[in-house]
Amino acid sequence: MTTFDLLLIGFGNVAKRFVSLLEEQRGELADRYSFRTRVIGIATRREGCQYVASGFSRTVTAWGPPEGGRHARLDVRSTLDFIRDACARDAAAAREGRLVVVETTTLDVRRGEPATSHIRAALAGGAHAITTNKGPAAFAWRSLMRAADRAGRRLLFEGAVMDGVPVFNLVRETLPAVTILGFRGVVNSTTNYILTAMEQGQPFADALAEMQAMGIAEADASLDVDGWDAAAKTAALANVLLDAGITPHDVERQGISPATGRAALDARAAGRRLKLVARAGRDGNRITARVAPEALAEDDLLAGLEGQQNGLILQTDLLGEIAVVQRDGSLTQTAYALLSDLIAVSRDVTPSPATRRLPRSAPPRRSPSRRARRAR
């Protein structure tokens, strides 16, 4: 039985649900995948940090400031120092591939920080890194994968685009020898909800307020409605699936506004649906990427996405179009993305009947493309 030591960078709702999900699935993880986990460190911007060599108790979800005070507050530099120190203090687990940094901090979508720096520090310290953050794949995909290769560690981020719905894992694990030619999708829940509501005559401000009340949109929702969130997801998808080497700043971007409501009503009257579509594809030797409202035919799969639903259509060379649809999202689904990434890490560390790779005597699989090799 292998024990994975987890270092939690960020301890908001997603990380807390991840910890409780680990407890709920404890028996399944032990019986089917032959591993267990313990949280050895937590770092947050508001509450500071704490390292416990023997692991926190199972009441870790209630972790907060000590009685009568707070843990030392952290800035970016001190968080990096904490990661480096924790990796050094847990050096045995790092050497054995049992140390995993779980990164769930809030993203600065215009710079890709602090997640990118956190991931670099984790890999340099010999830890695997799993994250729900878009920053690493959207801003520093190539350099981080080189760092992961040098360290012999995994960098996984299934929750960065569509919560726990498999996108990156789908391509990496189940589409060998397939080349992704492009994609298009609706990948931002807030804007899709607002567009659906405005089709029904609801004002932009009221629909946005509903999303803020549900905790889906931030108090400052400009990152959603101005298209930045969708642009970051587009860059992440393009980098991993198309080897694009771009950032969100390279994505042509147009968001939505109260004036978009008129366009949504006009499109519906014409038998079409207005959606904020993220797309990328190859144009000769270059990759083009865009986020903008598009009036789609009613029989288009993306046109049928209502409310908070998301969907992604992959264009491939051998299988034509492949579609993945997310009918609803929740904290559990995002936390599940971290769990699925942790199980993927365990396959390299803890061979078991459910997770082991093909035996050496098995016929080799056809060699994947350069893009697919990087995605591993």
Description:
This protein is of the alpha/beta class. The protein has two domains: 2-163 and 331-375, NAD(P)-binding Rossmann-like Domain (Rossmann fold, 3-Layer(aba) Sandwich), CATH 3.40.50; 180-326, Dihydrodipicolinate Reductase, domain 2, CATH 3.30.360. The chain has 16 helices and twelve strands. The chain has helices spanning 13-24, 26-33, 76-89, 91-95, 115-124, 135-139, 141-151, 159-162, 168-174, 189-199, 204-213, 222-225, 228-242, 260-269, 331-349, 370-375, and strands spanning 2-9, 35-44, 48-51, 99-103, 128-131, 155-156, 180-186, 252-253, 272-283, 286-297, 310-316, 321-326. A six-stranded mixed β-sheet has the order 3-2-1-4-5-6, sandwiched between helices. A six-stranded mixed β-sheet has the order 8-10-9-7-11-12. Strand 4 (99-103), helix 5 and strand 5 (128-131) form a beta-alpha-beta unit. Helix 5 runs parallel beside helix 7 and helix 10 (189-199) packs across helix 11. The longest helix has 19 residues, at 331-349. Mean pLDDT is 88; it is low at 67-76 and 354-376.
List keywords for this structure.
21% strand, 12 strands, 376 residues, six-stranded mixed beta sheet, Dihydrodipicolinate Reductase, domain 2, Rossmann fold, alpha/beta, 40% helix
